[in-house]
């Protein structure tokens, strides 16, 4: 494989796995990464020595210009992730995710980039997932009122009759409804990339990741995923603290599958344009995930369902894998049980 591929955020959790897979295929890989202290305390030991690394900020025109010239494809993973700590994080999220994306796209336009662009997006752009009311069919619930949450009524309610709703798999054509700062910035990344693709003719593939877990996840930060937070508690001899009633449903997908989806989008014979859910297709509750991790740790500790909630969280969101399978040619391969067993002892960052 003779391509030169730029991976922004290529030293991170997901990006580093993409780099490894591309190197294994014989690609020449460039990485631009800030090594943001919220996710990295030092230069990671797992970095692939066959890649070329530039330690710089995607918000910097100088750093970006250094890495975009002559690349055949761009895999844009650089992003500030998670809910953060509070709304005071809003400026940092917008700078890293949206301004950084804008700087990258302007540099690609300036250098006449004619390859393909793959964006790592997120299922958070959907807000709540898809719901059906027994009486009113498909409905779109609004944000769950704090009074309802405080009363321990966690299910989303029908906006017409108030009944609890049944969740269903969400497809890529679902309305977007970002409900926190991170989600808003990820959706704006998609819009910016689509605008660039339309004006430049560069083919764009948007991959909406669902709940990713696996080796190299950051631990013990406000930006770590729930799987990492639960595992860190178990390593400390403490029970995982499960919010709400543990019944919130997600699609947990292993990072190896996420990386493989990116590689398919980057290296297929012809570009596959469009937006795709990258998911396992087999949803599980957060409570199930906590219990599976506890079993992998020997079963001496059990999760604690604490009833607490965060207003930025949604109740259920899990995806249909059909379009990715039919159009992109992607199907997840790592099962939930196997992935959680591996994750229980996998090295974290």
Summarize this entry quickly:
This protein is α/β, with parallel strands linked by helices.
Description:
It contains ten helices and 16 strands. The model has no long low-confidence stretch (mean pLDDT 94). The longest helix has 21 residues, at 90-110. The strands form five sheets. A seven-stranded parallel sheet has the order 3-2-1-4-5-9-14, sandwiched between helices. Strands 7-6-8 form a three-stranded antiparallel sheet, with no helix packed on it. It has a two-stranded parallel ribbon with strand order 10-13. It has 349 residues and is α/β, with parallel strands linked by helices. The chain has helices at residues 13-24, 61-68, 90-110, 146-150, 181-200, 226-235, 255-267, 286-296, 322-328, 336-343; strands at residues 4-8, 28-33, 52-55, 73-76, 116-122, 130-133, 137-139, 166-168, 204-209, 211-213, 241-242, 249-250, 252-254, 274-278, 284-285, 304-305. The radius of gyration is 20 Å and the shape is globular. α2 crosses α3 (90-110), α3 (90-110) runs parallel beside α5 (181-200) and α6 (226-235) packs parallel to α8.
Q: What would you report as the Rg, rounded to the nearest angstrom?
A: 20 Å
The quaternary state of the protein chains shown equals: single chain
Secondary-structure element sequence? EHEEHEHEEEHEHEEHEEEHEEHEHH
Across the major sheet, the strand order is 3-2-1-4-5-9-14
Strand content: 15-25%
Helix tally?
Answer: 10
Number of strands: 16
Bulk shape: globular
Residue share in helices?
Answer: 25-40%
List the uncertain runs. none
Mean pLDDT: 94
Provide the structure class: alpha/beta
Specify the biggest β-sheet.
7 strands, parallel
């Amino acid at each position: 494989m003779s391509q030169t591929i730029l991976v922004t955020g290529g030293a991170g959790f997901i990006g580093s796995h993409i780099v490894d897979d591309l190197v294994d295929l014989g690609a020449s890989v460039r990485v631009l990464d800030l090594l943001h202290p919220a996710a990295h305390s030092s230069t990671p030991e797992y970095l692939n020595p066959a890649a070329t690394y530039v330690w710089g900020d995607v918000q910097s025109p100088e750093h970006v210009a250094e890495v975009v010239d002559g690349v055949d494809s761009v895999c844009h993973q650089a992003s500030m992730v998670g809910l953060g700590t509070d709304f005071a994080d809003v400026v940092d999220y917008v700078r890293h995710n949206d301004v950084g994306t804008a700087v990258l796209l302007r540099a690609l336009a300036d250098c006449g980039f004619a390859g393909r662009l793959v964006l790592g997006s997120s299922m958070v752009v959907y807000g709540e997932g898809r719901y059906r009311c027994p009486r009113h069919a498909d409905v779109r619930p609004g944000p769950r009122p704090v009074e309802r949450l405080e009363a321990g009524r966690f299910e989303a309610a029908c906006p017409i009759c108030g009944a609890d709703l049944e969740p269903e798999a969400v497809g890529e054509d679902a309305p977007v409804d970002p409900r926190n700062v991170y989600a808003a910035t990820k959706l704006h990344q998609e819009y910016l990339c689509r605008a660039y693709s339309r004006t430049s003719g560069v083919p764009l593939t948007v991959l909406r990741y669902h709940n990713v877990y696996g080796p190299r996840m950051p631990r013990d930060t406000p930006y770590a995923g729930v799987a990492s937070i639960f595992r860190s508690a178990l390593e400390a001899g403490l029970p995982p603290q499960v919010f709400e009633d543990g019944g919130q449903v997600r699609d947990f997908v292993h990072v190896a599958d996420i990386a493989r989806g990116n590689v398919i989008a980057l290296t297929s014979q012809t570009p596959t344009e469009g937006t795709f859910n990258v998911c396992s297709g087999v949803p599980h509750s957060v409570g199930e995930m906590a219990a599976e991790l506890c079993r992998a740790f020997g079963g001496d500790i059990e999760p604690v369902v604490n009833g607490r909630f965060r207003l930025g969280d949604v109740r259920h969101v899990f995806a249909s894998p059909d379009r990715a399978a039919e159009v992109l040619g992607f199907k997840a391969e790592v099962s939930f049980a196997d992935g959680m067993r591996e994750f229980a002892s996998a090295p974290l960052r």
